[in-house]
């Protein structure tokens, strides 16, 4: 029984760390997206195409995240 409680606590700590890290990553991404939106008026075609590719890749990565 003691081993099971230790495993549950370990899993809970790992899950909390994962969620905390994911939350920080999403906050940073939100900040970067807001910053990029402000730059929309000065966007060149080349910069916009490159940004679109990065956003597409980010979407793929975000939707592939699974819980530990």
- Unreliable residue stretches: none
For the sheet with most strands, the description reads: none
Radius of gyration (Å): 18 Å
- Which range best describes the helical content: under 10%, 10-25%, 25-40%, 40-55%, 55-70% or over 70%? over 70%
- The tally of beta strands, per DSSP, is 0
| Beta strand % | under 5%
| Element-by-element helix/strand order | HH
In short:
With 68 residues, the protein is mostly helical. The protein is 82% helix and 0% strand. The protein has helices at 2-38, 45-63.
Can you tag this structure with a few keywords?
68 residues, mainly alpha
Kindly describe this structure.
This protein has 68 residues and is mainly α. It has 2 helices and no strands. It is elongated, with a radius of gyration of 18 Å. The protein starts with a helix and ends in a 5-residue tail after the last helix.
Topology:
Layout: H1 2-38, H2 45-63
């Amino acid at each position: 029984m003691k081993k099971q409680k230790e495993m549950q606590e370990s899993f809970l700590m790992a899950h909390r760390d994962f969620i905390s890290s994911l939350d920080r990553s999403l906050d940073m991404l939100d900040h970067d997206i807001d910053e990029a939106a402000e730059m929309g008026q000065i966007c060149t075609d080349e910069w916009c195409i490159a940004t679109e590719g990065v956003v597409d890749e980010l979407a793929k990565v975000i939707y592939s995240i699974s819980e530990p």
